[in-house]
Amino acid sequence: MYKVAVLPGDGTGPEVVREGLKVLQAVSEAANFGIDFVRYDLGGERYLKTGEILPESVLEELRSFDAIYLGAIGHPDVRPGILEKGLLLRLRFELDQYINLRPVRLYPGVETPIKGKGPAEIDFVVVRENTEGLYAGAGGTLRKGTADEVAIQESINTRKGVERCLRFAFEYTRRRGNRNKLTLCGKTNVLTFAFDLWERAFNEIGASDFSDITRDYAHVDAIVMWMVKNPEWFDVIVTDNMFGDIITDLGAMLQGGMGIAAGGNINPTGVSMFEPIGGSAPKYTGLNVVNPLAAIVAASMLLYNLGEEAAAARVENAVKRVCETHLKSLAAGQMGYSTQEVGDLVLKYI
Ligand code: IPM
Ligand code: MN
């Protein structure tokens, strides 16, 4: 029996989470394990009603779960930054989910905007550092609102934080057993303090403990070029928080869009949180038109993280079948099916 906290969140979050829960329920019954779901109504609505974003007591409760399943955070009536920092980033930081794992995989039958590339060429994983860098919140403002205003936003990179991220990435590359190649994405030609630390740690750790893994380096601007031109060059990419944020949105487009892109905020020794990476899509709220597959793939990653690898594979294969044989497109309103019907199709193949 597992305990999973469910945070449907804002916008279309609840609609896609409903489909993900249907799938988790079905696959757990079929595989003979149980999941106890506990819902939390965190998000924009609760904040607007009560002023609460993430009460201390809820945070403490969340620490006791086996995993967290998140829909989406972001409300059109709440100023940008409040919910993102107060809820999503706070959860990542407080629960020390120091890895953001984002697979970029093109499923059969899905159209990519990259001409001439198919599922064989688009299949890599981004390991994004998830607790430091520009996201740490270091910096400040001086003389705000005057002509002499100063804004400083600093990137925090600690040897410990960088090292644990790199070790995870090396181990993940080995476990994946694909091409045993790890690419560090940085900017050593300009960010000479931060990425000097990353590059040294990368080479030291790689040489001493992972000699079976090929080390590769590319600047972030070259990475985005090659992600489009030669995505097949990549097996696993490891990078800092900000670059990881940016390149994984490009990755999501390569694999067919936000309708399918999922990720895990992982604390290898604690509570991890799984989410579709697309956001709350307010304009589609309640219309039953958005694609729940990203949330369903996130559910599959959650199962894998619990150690239910067979159940995870079963969900992923069902998603593949649905892409291959049914959906006209992955885009909201163009799938040829409603949100709920796509969930039902996945159930059928499970
Ligand atoms: C993501 C999102 C978040 C991020 C935002 C909503 C804070 O873009 O999960 O990639 O920047 O990490
Ligand atoms: Mn992002």
- Which term fits the overall shape? globular
Number of helices: 11
Written as H for each helix and E for each strand, in order along the chain, the element string is EHEHHEHEEEEHEHEHEHEEHHH
Bound molecules: 3-isopropylmalic acid, manganese (II) ion
The strand order across the widest sheet is 2-1-3-12-11-4-5-10-8-9
What's the helical proportion of residues? 40-55%
Strand content: 15-25%
Named CATH topology of the largest domain: Isopropylmalate Dehydrogenase
Mean pLDDT: 97
Largest sheet: 10 strands, mixed
Give the strand tally. 12
- Relevant CATH superfamily of the largest domain: Isopropylmalate Dehydrogenase
**Second rung of CATH, namely the architecture of the largest domain:** 3-Layer(aba) Sandwich
What low-confidence regions span 5 or more consecutive residues with pLDDT below 50?
A: none
Provide a descriptive summary of the structure in words.
The protein has 350 residues and is α/β, with parallel strands linked by helices. The chain folds into two domains: 1-97 and 280-350, Isopropylmalate Dehydrogenase; 111-254, Isopropylmalate Dehydrogenase. The chain contains eleven helices and twelve strands. It has helices spanning 13-31, 44-50, 56-62, 82-94, 159-176, 194-209, 220-229, 241-254, 293-306, 309-325, 339-349, and strands at residues 2-9, 35-39, 67-72, 99-105, 123-129, 133-142, 150-156, 181-186, 214-219, 236-239, 262-266, 272-276. A ten-stranded mixed β-sheet has the order 2-1-3-12-11-4-5-10-8-9, sandwiched between helices. The protein has a two-stranded antiparallel ribbon with strand order 6-7. The radius of gyration is 20 Å and the shape is globular. The mean pLDDT is 97. Residues 84, 88-89, 245, 277 line the site of 3-isopropylmalic acid.
